[in-house]
Amino acid sequence: IVNNDLDISKEGESKTFELSHKYDRAYISGLILTGFGKGNNFFESRTKRYKTTLHLEISFYADDILLLKKSVQNDDYTPFLAKYGGGMHLFYYKCPNELPLNKKIVCVVRVIKPDKQLQDTYGPVRFFIAKMSDK
Q1: Taking the CB of residue 97, how many other CB atoms lie within 10 A of it?
Q2: In the structure, what pLDDT confidence band is assigned to residue 135 with cuts at 50, 70 and 90?
Q3: Which of 12, 36, 71, 131 is most buried, taking the most CB atoms under 10 A from its CB?
Q4: What is the per-residue DSSP string for the chain?
Q5: Counting Cβ atoms within 10 Å, is residue 38 exposed (0-12), middle (13-18) or buried (19+)?
Q6: In this predicted model, which residue has the larger pLDDT, 69 or 78?
Q7: pTM of the model
């Protein structure tokens, strides 16, 4: 439901997205690394893989009221590979448990601590939110 560019190389960088959840289920947020393939150490074991310095704060608002706030940093992410490339999952949430259905939500992603090397090696980077599969 969201798939947009995000510059993770600058501290304080902030991007705002509008979305609405149509389905009663789990959703996942993450980063797509569109330059995947320039190196493969990002997807090695947790002890050997790339150590990101990235720290993101993701906040969700409805009618200017904060409903959900997540802070993701260091090893909070989970790398993934897919047919369209790779990236990292940041966190899951459920609707309507954590965020309401069929209501305009404003999502603000803020870079607390950047990781220019991650962006230069694997970017450009895209922030995404998607509904989880029914399976």
Answers
A1: 9
A2: low
A3: 36
A4: -EEEE---SSTT-EEEEEE---SSEEEEEEEEETTTTS--GGGS-TTTS-----EEEEEEEETTEEEEEEEEEGGG-EEEEETTEEEEEEEEEEETTTS-SSS-EEEEEEEEE--HHHHHHH-SEEEEEEEPP--
A5: exposed
A6: 69
A7: 0.88
